[in-house]
Amino acid sequence: MVVMKMKFSFQKRVKLAQGLWLLSWCTTVASAITFTLGCILKMELRRRAEVMDSGNIHVVPNTLMIVGLASLGINYFASKICQDALDAERFPRWKNFLKPYFAASCFFTVLMLLAVIMSYAMKGSLESSLKVGLKNSIRFYKDTDTPGHCYQKQNIDYLQMEFQCCGNSDFRDWFEVQWISNRYLDFSSKEVKDRIKSNVDGRYLIDGVPFSCCNPSSPRPCIQYQLTNNSAHYNYDHQTEELNLYLRGCRETLVSYYTSLMSTIGTGVLSVFLLQGSVLVSLRFLQTAMEAVVGKENTEIETEGYLLEKGVKDTIMDLHQPGRCTVPHICLCSPPSSTLPPQLTSIASDQPVSDPFFSAARSTSSSIPTVTYPRTGSHPVL
Amino acid sequence: MALMLIKFDLKKRVKLAQTVWFMYWFAVMAGVLVFSMGLFFKIELRKRSEFMDNNESHFLPNLLILMGLITCVTNAFGGKICYDSLDPSKFAKWKPMLKNFLVSCMCFNSLLLMTALLCFLMRIPLQFTLTEGLKNGMRYYKDTDTPGRCYMKRTLDLMQIEFRCCGNDNYRDWFEFQWVSNRYLDFSSKEVKDRIGSNVDGQYLMDAVPFSCCNPSSPRPCIQYQMTNNSAHYSYDHHTEDLNVWKRGCRDALLSYYGSMMNTIGALVVLVTILEVAVIIGLQYIHSSLSTLANPEDPESESEGWILEKTVKETFTDIMAKMKAMGKGSKVEEGGEAVVATVS
Asked: Is the pLDDT at A382 greater than 70, yes or no?
């Protein structure tokens, strides 16, 4: 049984072709926008690549860019096809192109949907990548003289100032790393020697944070050293002092920034996906409706359009085993006798299936309208 | 002898009208651009009005907005005239006022040129406003509990971070103001008492700068306190250390920011003026070519077009003579009235 059969009068076909042409141009613009959104996302992810450990998240913008470009091509051809559809002479030249075209379009449309799903689902991967990346960046903050790490300090400082965050989970992460380079520590001083001895790794750890953690909205000048020592500063209680430093961790800030960016993009691309799907469905209807008209004298007859000639299951099985016949009087290939029910094998083997004239005569007697140009006797047309 | 005489037949006239119509639409869009630049400049000035003592002159952006609007209107009007010029019946109703329209366009053009000049000159008053405004900004930095000034600290910090500058001329300006509020000073400590005693106004001055002056590109953590005391920090010489805090003063930074904006706007207005001159010349050609038709009834006849009917010198003497005649005419009238008055 046919999937979604619809009757199309001549007027309806014309309207369908015109509507489809307009829709395909709109979708072309939409796919260009998808490509641009993919580029924007990739640029934003590249900007903060130093604080990200793995590049797994880049699969989202890459897919968006590929899908955007592919959709441009798909919609361009869709508009060309529907322009030729109403012209009975020009339409047949698209015949061989349409099957691979629909296969490719379905693949890229599904890929678009996958990209949308991934843009929502990859939050966890992003978070773990940022956790490791930020930890490493904070560790190398002091290495401004080591090649490869010399810009780490600058990047972290600008990151913390721009996103108004401090440390990985919060500002206490800075207490666990030595972020002052040994070049600026006076090793002859008692204080430095005490601190270095006080921990196993011999690091100079302080309860202080870099200046980039300071919050400009604080009413008092920034307190960044001896944060846990209330007596070091006048009128200061580190448990209640809220505004002095940024309280949010940079991991949380960056994750929320990127997830909001990706959800916005995902929603936009979802609407492009719906548009693209409707273009493909309309094109399929137009194609099947026009195929019945080709070769006929009167082009203004009413025809039927459908999505799939057989049911979904049958179509999929046909694609897997092209030689299999389920309805012998329509199939024109010579079926392997093992797949036919026993009572039909004798009938099938009697008839010279490869004779095109015989096949043509048989096919016109069927009730389902098919194309009347000579068959190559290979496999049933979908 | 007319200035720049050109012969026109119907085809050429049609082409001229179409070209000038096109140019008028470009000029309308240019007017919209001038309007939006004026608006943008106004918004930028308002954003940082605290550093200009809330005293900044909005004359220039307002003028730009006005000029943009007038440009749009005049050019739309001129475009309509061009459009009608190909239809003799429609053009007849525009003909009488076309000369006055062209003269007013010329005056407006000179105003536009003056606006462009103003754009380049506005830097100078801005410099003085900024110096005063930034000085006050630094003075009120500590007053985060005074209503009306509580956001000065935040605004100044964010500005120093964004524009990568420190102080008015350089970071030493901070040494002259007390920028730590009294609420956070321990008046029982000897150090605080010494500092306050050491100057006439009783202010707590130190050789330190706020954290927003810190330069992230420095290889070492920021040194913002005891900046002139080399022994307070290991391996530090404040004469040679140049990456620690921003070296530029905020006045310079803001001036160059606004200066480049005004230069761009000024250059754009000059371009718009040139475009306006071109459309005026085009319209003058249309006007002159349509008024010198060899056969007024036949629209396909040949005609001549020019910029000025006589040479520049003769036109100038004509205008002078006209003005003198107008002056004499009013004198005669006055004399006549006086005679009438004495008679009656």
From this structure: no
Cross-chain CB nearest to A217 (options B154, B180, B224) = B154
Average pLDDT for B67-94: 89
Residue A377 above 90 pLDDT?
no
Q: CA angle at residue A269 from A266 to A273, to 5 degrees?
A: 130
Provide the number of CB pairs (under 8 Å) joining chain A to chain B: 72
CB B4 within 8 A of CB B306: yes
Query: Residue type at A30?
Result: A
Q: Is the pLDDT of residue B22 over 90?
A: yes
DSSP string, B189-202: SHHHHHHHHTSTT-
Handedness of CA A111, A113, A119, A125 (dihedral sign): negative
User: What is the predicted pLDDT for the residue at A349?
Assistant: 45
Dist. CA B246–CA B179, nearest whole Å: 18
CB within 8 Å: A184 and B235: yes
From the list B180, B221, B233, which residue is nearest A210 (CB)? Answer: B221
What is the pTM (predicted TM-score) of this model?
Answer: 0.78
Question: pLDDT-based confidence at B154, cuts 50/70/90?
Answer: very high
Any A CB within 8 A of B147 CB: no
Contacts of B221 in chain A (CB under 8 A): 179-180, 184, 210-211
Token representation of residue A209: 């944070």
In angstroms, the CA A105 to CA A93 distance is 19
Half-sphere exposure of A30 (CA within 13 A, CB side): 23
B145 close contact with A: CB closer than 8 A: yes
A379 touches A323 (CB < 8 A): yes
Greatest CA span in chain A, whole angstroms? 107
Among candidates B144, B217, B220 on the partner chain, residue whose Cβ is nearest the Cβ of A154 = B217
Q: What's the DSSP call for residue A9?
A: -
Residue of chain A minimizing CA distance to B161: A161
pLDDT, tens only, A84-114: 887 777 887 888 888 899 999 999 999 999 9
A278 neighbors A19 (Cβ within 8 angstroms): no
Closest to A283 measured CA to CA, from A87, A71, A80:
A80
> Using beta carbons and an 8 Å cutoff, which residues of A are at the interface with B?
144-145, 150, 153-154, 157-158, 161, 179-181, 183-186, 189, 210-212, 214, 216-217, 219-222, 224, 233-235
User: What is the helix (H) or strand (E) element at residue B217, kind and residue range?
Assistant: none
Q: What is the mean pLDDT of residues A18-27?
A: 93
Q: Which pLDDT score is estimated for B213?
A: 95
Residue B338: the pLDDT is 54
- CB-CB contact of B224 with B166 (8 Å): no
Closest partner CB to A221 (pick from B180, B189, B233)? B180
The residue among B241, B243, B48, B254 whose CA lies nearest residue B165 is B254
- Say if CB B315 and CB B67 are below 8 A apart: no
Indicate yes or no: CB of B184 within 8 angstroms of CB of A235: yes
